[in-house]
Amino acid sequence: MTNTVFKETQRFRQVWIWIILLGTTAVTLIGIFNSVISSDSTLSIILPLMILALVILLFLSMKLEIRIDSHSLSYSFFPLIKKRLYSFNEIQSLQLIKFNPLWKYGGWGIRYNFDHWAYNVGGNMGILVTTKRNRFLLGTQKPNEAQRAINRFNEAKQNNHAG
Question: Which residues cross the membrane (predicted)?
Fold first, then answer.
């Protein structure tokens, strides 16, 4: 069994996100209440409630999971992206970087900046992964632990090339 070098699970728990979602919910409920008073159709009441419930459930269920063990890196962004696994042979480099999520990617979540994908739940630190075929960024809330895992990866990569 492989030993885990780094493991992190992140969720959208930022207060500002939930203020926006709850504010939207309040505005929608006020609109629905007004629809009920003016006797609009049932569809105009149920549809917004269903959409709002689905968005809230999506935010409650979304989680970014990152795992680095002695042989591979894997991540998933449940429920949107299933587990993706990269062996260390496929990875050319891992690098801990600081970035501006709004400027570089237009925010948090699953983003593309015309160069590479970013999977970020919050913060401004990430692991930039370069493989033989592509690059992507995995946001991290544990930069010190991530850096230790990157150092171990670099040591293993160097030892494999030296031997």
Answer: 15-37, 43-62
Q: How are strands ordered across the β-sheet holding 63-69?
A: 4-11, 63-69, 72-78, 81-87
pLDDT of residue 1: 37
Mean pLDDT over the full length of the chain: 89
DSSP string of 12-28? ---HHHHHHHHHHHHHH
Give how far Cα 2 sits from Cα of 9, 73, 80, 160, Å: 19, 12, 26, 18
For the residues of 33-85, what is the DSSP string, one character each? HHHHHTT--SHHHHHHHHHHHHHHHHHHH-EEEEEEESSEEEEEEETTEEEEE
Record: fold of 4-9+63-162: PH-domain like (2.30.29)
Q: pLDDT of 107-126, one tens digit each?
A: 899 999 999 999 999 999 99
The one-letter amino acid code at 25 reads: T
SS3 121: coil
Report domain extents, the chain.
4-9+63-162, 11-60
